[in-house]
Automatic annotation (TrEMBL):
Protein name, per record: Inositol 2-dehydrogenase
Lineage, uppermost ranks: Bacteria, Pseudomonadati, Planctomycetota, Planctomycetia, Pirellulales
Location of the Gfo/Idh/MocA-like oxidoreductase N-terminal domain: 57-171
Domain Gfo/Idh/MocA-like oxidoreductase bacterial type C-terminal span(s) in chain numbering: 214-282, 392-463
Source organism: Blastopirellula retiformator
Keyword annotations of the record: Oxidoreductase
Protein EC: 1.1.1.18
Amino acid sequence: MSNSSRRDFLKQSAIATAGASVPYFLTSSPVIADEQKADAANDRPLVGCIGTGSRWNAVGPNAMKLGDVVAVCDVDADHADKARQRCEAEMKKQGRERKVDVYEDYRKILDRNDVEIVTIVTPDHWHSKIAIEAMKAGKDVYCEKPLTLTIDEGKKICKVAKETGRVFQVGTQQRSEMGQLFLKAIALINEGRIGDIQKVHVAIGGSPTSGPIPIAEVPKQLNWEKWLGQAPLVDYRFKPGGGWGNSRCHYEFRWWFEYSGGKMTDWGAHHVDIAQWGLDQQGVGGPLSLEPIMAKFPTPFEDGMPTQDDRYNTPTEFHVKATFPRDIEVVIRNECNDLGFGNGVMFEGTKGRFMVNRGKLVGAPVEEFKTNPLPEDAIQKVYKGSTPARGNAHMTNFFECVKSRKEPISDVYSHHRAMTTCHLANIALRFDRTVKWDEKSEQIVGDEQANGWLAREARKGYEVTA
């Protein structure tokens, strides 16, 4: 019997006899025979890790607490080998020694019948293609944010997720962790503590800048052509030295529009998500328009395109006003120091306001918790009927949903809506003009040029298809 079939059999047996309500691999059932208990205890979901750079060092180990990694993949051989060593060492420490296979081509992982779950921790411009192909290959997916490079990619991911029924968790950990501060914030709104939302301030920081970065020889361990993927085939650029402004590869890809969207999609994927989650509690739809108030770029732009190709090109400072139904404003800025915070989300309502970030939840409505605490089930209501785990909550929620087939806390549909706002904000900044949005048709209204930026042409052989 295959790993997946055996797990399904044991799960159904436990549910039928004990009415289990938590993933069977996180507990045990007295009705399972001794030999089945031993099998179930070691029969953890098998995971393939696609992309093993710096961010994987958080995602990968969290996945290993709940499943066994059997394969890793990266177009940088050094990254892949370090991940292999870490996985094998971690499983040995847990008493489950296992050889981990290494690939350069992610499709080798998707072709494996034993791999049930994949983590995707690649540069942003690779997320959608791999995620769509993974779902079609029957894998459940944990993918880091931002999930998409364009609005069109989000539409495709939502379509395939619905068609395949795969469980998909986006790596917006604020929805699960950070001391439950964001969950409490959403619960506060849900309980009507600030009345009707009138305005939201979102501060997400600005992108760094760089000077000219010279063309350099591609490192031997890096397959640069495959790293570029759907993006245009360009020269590798690098200069020695620490800090920012040294590369158009690896972590610094975030500051190039060819591969990402700067802070608008980096931290915006977190804080704009929280802002729209709050609006969702009051039945507010998506944005109607996005107006660029101010932007500073490291390079001049013409017709939405940077005029220099040897330096970062995402905005270092910005201010965008998004108008939502009921005349609600969501202001997205690199900082809100005039309001007393440089990073976070402030909700203003008819009954009061509060601010939340990863370190604090403050404001008069929060102080009232002392005399009027949130109901005991308030967090559970926000968390789709579940209770966040005390540790590794976001990954645990994903693995629980893999077993229950329920929708995880950071689903692709809500993430697509939040990223739509972020992508539209970047389009408005790049063209320096207001864009009007029709949420129903998912089209920019009355601006053919801007509407053409809802998708990007992919390099031949790397198309993103649904």
